[in-house]
Amino acid sequence: VRLVGGSRCSGRLEILHDQTWMSVCDAAFDQQDAEVVCRELDCGAPVQVLGAAAFGKGDTQMWTQEIQCKGNESQINFCPVTQSHKNTCSHKNDVGLMCADNVNVRLAGGQSRCAGRVEVLQRGQWGTVCDFFWDMADAAVVCRELDCGEPVDVLGGAHFGPGSGPFETNLKLCTGSESTLKSCGSVKWGLYPCDHTKDAGVICSGVRLIGNSSCSGRLEILHDQTWVSVCDAAFDQQDAEVVCRELDCGAPVQVLGAAAFDKGDTQMWTQEIQCRGNESQIHLCPTSFNKNSCSHDNYEGLFCG
Q1: Measured between alpha carbons, how far is 153 from 133 in angstroms, rounded to an integer?
Q2: Any idea where the SRCR domain is (predicted)?
């Protein structure tokens, strides 16, 4: 089933039958049928069923059967049909459908909404992604879709704990520029044994540590799509608590000033961060203008552990 001529979750309804896409008559489709279509497409609940070719006239054959879903089926092909409906239909009667556009990916099991096990909505059920070939390009798409900044780390082996439900065994072939994970290509791959001990995880953040590991290094913050460094005079233990938590790196072990992790070549962040220490992400902390005169000799560094 697909929706054509609108968006991912709205458009003219077409059903695949004998390898041919067919349009559906508005007289043969109701709210219960709409519930099933929206679920199958991993969209939200039906918002509106529209007749009279609201999304334009199709150029396909017309579906000749009447769909009689109960509304709880996971796919349209599980619904009963009658052999033919009594109405005379043309493309003036093509049915259209608007479903709510759900978020179809989430991160679970981490310390913030931007770090965790990758879970995708598959026919109304949350499932996980196999870590085989899962990489930073795939993670970049997830982080963008969730408005979580940039990918900081990609983790396999159920780092955030094993999930439940179905798991996606198709290899995702994201370039990194797609707006949603569903927009990425994929390829069937059956040679790698996937189970929930191999669930993929991602850490996205507007903050990162540049050093020998993702949990220690020079502190940089994403501001207006540019990574900027932080002055050691504008950063304290409470700020460190938030950074380590956001990066899923435990507690701060040491806060280091004086460019302990090299001087870098980024711009200097002009704000002073004033976290209370219990925030889940650095961008939720208040800031004020930093009165200190800072240079590349004052870059902030941090060890989390």
Answers
A1: 14
A2: 1-100, 105-205, 207-305
